[in-house]
## 1
Amino acid sequence: MKENLIQEIQSRPRASVKCERILVPSDGSGEAVEALNRAIDLAAVTGAHLTLLAVVDYNAEVAAFEQVSLSGYVPAELKIEAYRLLAELMHLVPPGIGADIRVESGDAGETIVDVAKDENSDLVVMGTHGLGTVQSLILGSVSKYVAEQAPCPVLLTKGVPDGWEFDPETDE
């Protein structure tokens, strides 16, 4: 029975996998940089174009009191920092691999899914912080949400690049 199944699978015509657009969300963490490294590897093999995405979640970044005191004004500095982060990450992308950057605001998970749809992404490559089951249930997980809701496959990567230095001030 097992041999028949293997033979049947091997007799199927070979399928080609289309991968022209890869979305790489980043928060600047070591896990996100490792995801970018994996996306670069895939783009080098497939010829895919990368879109590096930073999502600014004003609700997470600006305390409720600050939002009230700012009278609805949202600090432009948050978006500027997101552009700076992505500009630094673009230095990791080797010549010959097409890449651009995009900064959006909103809930991280929902925004990543929306951008994947908007960009007609064939793949989303993102790092996971590995919060664990209990912490993930309490806090939620952006990577879990994206994996469940994205219109395309999602590759979740673990770990950080070799030589990554932990910054205790930012928990990264």
Note: The two ends are 51 Å apart (CA to CA).
## 2
Amino acid sequence: MTLPTLSSTSKSSSLLSSWLAAFLGLLVFLVDQVSKILTANFLPLSYLHSQVYPYGGIGVFKNFLGIEFSITHATNRGAAWGIFAEFQPFLLFLRILLVGGLLLYAVFYNKNRSKLFPLVLIIAGAAGNILDYFIYGHVVDMFHFIFWGYDYPVFNIADSSIFIGIVWLFLLSSYSTKKETKTE
């Protein structure tokens, strides 16, 4: 019996992390799609109902330290917070191009393994929102928060995944910049 060499151990570790990242991406994508199917099929659009809690949806909590949360059915035809909604075909093309570019980068060019998981979160979330355009003609959103009187834009799991991936990449970048500064 031979012991694994360092290079074979690092290759198997790299392969394992790649499989875990792919599993995470698939899991995020599937949970996002299931939540959107349930929302689209079982909750009426929120603009058809009252503007008081739970806003035509399902109340989760009200006035928890001044925060309200409900699950509602909202649509978004634009980018974040509905901006550029009048440019839907262009946004769809741009999103597909960006996801393709990120996917190519993550698979073929990314040498920093610590970036793999946040990249996968961004790709899975963006792919989920892209698929919505082909299924529904818009993105389905459902998480409705009101923070101390501020009505935060309704969002979904894909949006959360993209946000977490971007923040994670930002933190990785900040950490590596601080580390490089200390070594100089």
Note: Residues 19-179 form one domain.
## 3
Amino acid sequence: MNQRAADTPEQVLKFAPKEKTQNRAVELDDAGQSIVAQIRTAADLAKGDCDRAMGLAHKLSRELRAAEDRTQRMIREVEHWQDRATRAEQWLQTIQQEIEEKLLARRSLPDAEEVAIRKF
């Protein structure tokens, strides 16, 4: 008799499950198949999550590219209007100089010269 049997009362031993090696093998196979099935399910879920994340990343990438394109268009438009404003300021300065030289200079002429200019 083994040590376990000696330490355990006889009544308990009667109710102890009898070990069957064939049942154990089936249980192990079932457990293994169940674990493999759960791993496959987890892999499918992870693949689905990955696919959704990649789809979202591509969508956001396209949106970012479109926003960058709009920004570049706006920058070009701002540069265009800045150039026009600069040219307009230059023309205004030229016009102001012409007014000062041609029109305001005449006011400062002595009366005799002014009369002579009016006669022409």
Note: The first helix runs from residue 3 to 7.
